Structure formats: C-alpha cells, structure tokens
Amino acid sequence: MRIGSTVTVSFRALRRNTMRSILTALGIIIGVAAVIAVFSIGNGAKSQVEAQIASLGQNVLLIFSGSFSQGGARSGAFGAGTLTPDDAEAIARELPNITGVSPEVRSGAQVLANGLNWSTQVLGEGADYLSIRLWPLSSGAMFTDQDTKSVGKVAVVGATIVKQLFPDDDPIGQTLRIRNQPFRIIGVLQAKGLSVQGSDQDDIVVIPYTSAMKRVTRQTMLRSINVQAATPDTIDDVQADITALLRQRHRTTEQTDDFTVRNQAEIAAAANATSQTLTLLLAIVACVSLVVGGIGIMNIMLVSVTERTREIGIRMAVGAHGSDVLLQFLIEAVILSSMGGIIGILIGIGASNQITKFMGWPVLVSASSVIGAFAFSAVVGVFFGYYPARKAAQLDPIDALRYE
Amino acid sequence: MAPVVQLQDIHKTYDSGEVQVRAVRGISLDLEKGEFMAIMGASGSGKSTLMNTLGCLDRPTKGTYLLDGVDVGKLDRNQLADLRNEKLGFVFQGFNLLARTTALENVELPMLYGKHRGSNVEIRKRAMHCLDIVGLANRHDHFPSQLSGGQQQRVAIARALVNQPQVLLADEPTGNLDSKTSIEVMGVFQKLNNGGITIVMVTHELDIAHYCKRNLIVRDGKVVNDMQIENRSIAELELKKILEAEAAAKLTGTD
Question: Which among B81, B100, B163 is the nearest to A320, CB-wise?
C-alpha cells in the first residue's frame, strides 16, 4: 500500500531536518509534560485528601456550634457557643442508629512535663472519641465514661507530645501539667500525620471534656459534637434526626439555626472541590500550552511546505498524487506531535517524581492522563498539520517545479 | 506498431486574466518507439509548454494527445500522476534531486509512488541497477551536495529510468553543465537510446541537438522544421577527441 511508502517518505523528510524537527516538537513536549505533571500533582493531592478524610473516622457527623446562616447576625461555624453537654447527652440518649457521641472542647495550652514545655492543642472529648475517629493507641488505654463523669485528671497524648516532652522515657504514668493542673498520662496515640488543613494531628493532648471545661477552658459550652452513625446508610437519617432534635431543644428553625451538622461526605466534597478547582485551573493552562505547541507545528509545517515547494513538485512529477503529498505532510505532523507526546510523557513522569523527591508533594501518575495527553497531542498533530498539508497537496506540479 | 506519442493539432492557451496567451497553436507530431528527438526553439517559442504537455504535467486546451495509446486529455490529476509514474521519466535542467537524500534514495523515489510497489529489497536492487547503468553505483550513498553537476544529472537520469518508462523526457538536461560534462550526459542518453529507450529533450544548443536523431524546431507555438539528423555526433568519439586534445595540450605544455 501507499501508506507504507508515505510513512517511509515522512520519516526520511523529518530525519533530513533533525534539529528543526526536535525544536518543533519541543512545544508539544513541554505541553504534554506540563499536563502530565499537573494531573499527577492533582491526583496526588486528591488521594491525600481522601486519605485524610478517611482519617476523620468512619460514618462521622460533626455538629458545630454556630451556623452559616444565622438570621440577621451571620457568623460561621464555631462562632457562638450554643451546644451544651446536655445536647450531646440528649443525642446519645434519644436517637437511634448512633454508636458513639463525643462532645468536644478545644483550647491551645502550654503543657509542662519532664522539665520540658510545649505549646499544644488540648482536646476535651468523650470516651467514644478514639473509636469514632478509628484512632488506635500505641500504648496504654483510653479514659472511660467513668473518667468523664468524675472529671478525672487523666490524659491521652499524641505522638508529637511524646517526641517533644518524653524523648527518652515511657510517658505512661507520668504527670503532664496543663494550666498548672496535673494530669496523669494513661495512653499514647498512634501517629496520624497531617490533617486536611495541613496541621499536625499528633500534636494533641486528649482529656475528658468535663475536665477540660472545668479545669482548662472554664467554659460551659461545647465547641462541637462528634457523632458516629451505625452504618453509612443511616448517616442521612441520623443527620436529619440530630437537626430535628437540636431545633427542638434550641427552639430554632432552619432560618435561625445556631448549629451546623456536617457529615463526612460533605467535608470530603468541600476539600476535594478546592483541589479539583486548582487542578482544573492548572490543566487549562497546560492545555493552552499544548495548543500553542500545535500552532508551532502548524507554523513550521507551513514554512516547510513553502521551503519544500520544489520537492513537492519533484514528487508530483514522478507520480505522487495530491493525497500522497497530503498524507506525507500530515504524517510528518503527527509523527512530530506524537513523538513530542511520548517524550513529553516521559519528562512529565520524571518531573512528577522529582517533585515528590524535592518538594515532598504526593504525586500519582494516572494512566488516563498519560493516554489522554498522548491522544490529545496526536489530535493536535492532525488538526494543525492538516492545513499546511492541504496547501502542499493543492500545489500545481509545473509551478512547484519552477519555484525558486 | 503504433507510435508511442501521438499529438494531433495540440493547442494550449493560458488564460491569465484579460490577456490570452496562445503558447502552442496547433502542433501535430508522431514519435515512434526508439526515437531520440530534440525540441529546439527560442524563449517563448512554446517548447516548454509542449514539453509540459508531453510530460503529462499539463493538459492541452485543444487537440488530442495519445501516450502509448492512452488519451491524456481525458484523465484527471491523479490519473495523470499515475501515467507520469508508469510511462514517463523526467530529467530536469536543475537536476531536481532531493537535498540531504542519498543518490540511492533519490533513485528509489518514483518506485515509492508506484501502483505495484515491490519489497524494499527489490526497490533497492532496481535502484542500484539503474545507478549502475549511469555508472554511479559506487556513489550510491553520496548526497547530491557531494556530487558534481554531471554526476547529479546522471543520478537524475537513473531516477528517470527506474520505472522503465516508455519515454524519457529531458528539459534542457545540459543547461547547467559545462561542455565536456554535457557530452558525457549526451553519451549516457545515446547509450540508453541504443538500448531502445525513446528520448525527447529540449535544448537551445545546436551542437547538443546534433547528438539526437531528430530535431524539431518550434517558433510561435508552431513546428517550423522537423528533420532527421544525418551523421549525428557520437558522444563517445567526441569525448575521445576532447581527451586527446587535452592530452596534447598537456604535452605541449610540459615540453
């Protein structure tokens, strides 16, 4: 078939101008590499966010005090302390399909132990907290409902606290002073890494919420309530039940709600939306560079057609059809762009790995982005190669031969 | 046997806007197999147009042109291209080899566009054979820029031969060559013609035309003279004379 010959002819023509071919493909190489790198970073960020969302716990609902739409006086979550320990007890007591409820207060505090001090986050929680968040202990035990009832001075500490205050000793049984109150350490949490927001989740001290309210924050209101639904299917029901119960208790309506109930899926969606928006933005920039690369190919092919007018004339004189010439230039453009695509993919993957190595960002090269980028670069070749190729094919052999 | 080329009252008019240029105004011509004809004429005499018509690069506006029995006037662009590929070989004044392409690949070119394409080995073999005919088999991997003008023209002749054409068309093949190399190229043509190949060439040099068997003089788009050349120049002998003369010059020079 003639296609076989034409491919040979195209390769020969490109080989005759190796340098120009490489420079022409450079636009596509950069474009494809950028697309691959951007999508890899985006995917990496997405998978990281997903892992972090999973680390929130299983089937978790968060009730914040304050509301995003609180009548005339608008304030966001955590704006006003409106949740009480009684609310938490009511949820645990009255609603079905709930396997855990943990009231929460928080306070930053300077803690002392072992002759060292460290600024950390003190969490007042219920006894269910660790099971809600699927957070295992590396040693010791979690405090119990008994401790929350008796306002016990016990604490479970995160891995960072151990690293900072007990670099050499076993922290279990040691005393930790929070706002000058001594707490006995009874458990150490397993390291969990960074949170969705990028803060160190292990830099915490967990104490019973009753103790935190009485001895540390000296507040009567909760910051939030963590609730665990029994199964994923019941999350929506539980969310509706909680909303109804709290409206009844707080005597509010949808317009005047002083609390916000969020489930894990919503939090995940919000976090993903941010990273997706960013990925999309970068992808658009990368695609623009691909198009620019394509225009570069068209530019060079047009120059090439003019420069090789005589060659086209010779080819036609010895029997090339217009379609042979069209195919030759089209194949040249596609070879340029798909070669550029392949090199770009390799560079993109390499760059992604370097990003992980030097910047510590997680990257994930997905097969779909590789295939997509390659297909796109081939399409760019056909699209931007067609016009110059058609121009070449329509040349008159006599004029082309006479061209100086 | 029917003539290879039959022109009957060929007209060609170029319609460039308001002015009509009548380049060829009624030429009839028969060309038998094995002929070796030179078309001569001044600039603007219509010889290039006649050549383009013969070369199936252009269709006549009026008249019929039968090439090997095929009516060229009825063919479309692609059919003309196939006809050029199968039945014609082209040699140009400016050699028109592809730059940065080896002599062998240049010779292979017409076979790549052939309807019945052989294997790569076959193509290579045929191309080498044609280079051998013009005496350049040992230069097959040279680029045109590494070859002299005469050698480039011989590569072009090899390219014209490679599809075993009915007619070899040469448009001022010696125009860019010095007189000795011109005679060498004419020697190649004479050798090919002796082997049975029909050759038509355009030239404006009378002494070059004298190597052909038949001369056609064109003026104002018409044939004014069509004559057989008696005791034409034989390139081999002329070359020998030149070599002897050169040798003599050197002898007198050194003595």
Answer: B81
